[in-house]
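Researcher: Good morning. I'm working through a list of sequences from a screen, and I'd like to move beyond sequence-only analysis. For each chain I'm collecting a predicted structure so we can compare shapes side by side. This is the next one on the list. No need for commentary yet; just the structure.
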Amino acid sequence: MARDTNFYYSFLVLPAEKRRAIVAVWDFCRAVDDAVDEAVDEEAARAETAGWRRELAACFEGGAPQTPQGRALAPLVREFNLPRASFDALIEGVEMDIGARRYETFADLYEYCIRVASAVGLICLEIFGYRNPRARQYATNLGVALQLTNILRDVPEDLARGRVYVPQEDLRRHGCTEADLSCEVRQAGRGVKSAAVRAMLKQQADRAHRYYRQAAAVLPHEDARQLVAAEIMGAIYRAILGRIERADYDVFTRTVRIPRPERALIALGVWAQTAIGLRGRESPAPTR
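Model: Good morning. Structure tokens for this chain:
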């Protein structure tokens, strides 16, 4: 895993054996995602995802994985009781990227988010460890928040690939079209020109904030230390969201990133807050 990924500093806080497991999961999931992004056409993309389904079956059914990613993942399946359903969901989500896919409503987009992001969070949850089942809802909400942040940040990059993740109903609500987004890309460099596009992007940011709040609301206090890596991920992505907002939603001029030193400081701050018990909600006291 490269130091330039937003996940690098979050994984540094893990014990060595859990860090190796998380990196193996991350490498497998990244390879599945790249299989579609790098395919030359739709037929090749579907062939690639079919190959990763076979590789997943080998990992879970005692077969012989054929890829470095599969061979690294296979021994972890039993060690950490990894959920096959979440890996299956990830592949389903990646397949949703094949072709010029559009999402009519946020409910439609939510189904994509829980497959490509929350599913990965639920896999990682088994490696982090947890006691309170509420942690699963935390991972689901956080995954959606991270993916919505990605979608907002990557509007121009996705548009270049023929993809628009912003729900069509949101575009209509603000009087925007895909042509308006393309116009912003062509005129990038002096801020968002269209007030309607800016308002639509703000709506996407507000929605991401809502899911970050929902994740924080269900983070179990008793699991906060075990889930500190996830909290660091969330804090770094919230910082990306904050930068987008301070740029007045200009995601067209350059890709919004958090510099490495700032990511390290964010990680240190979250780790310190968790160590002294400032993160997570207390579980309700049992009724008598």
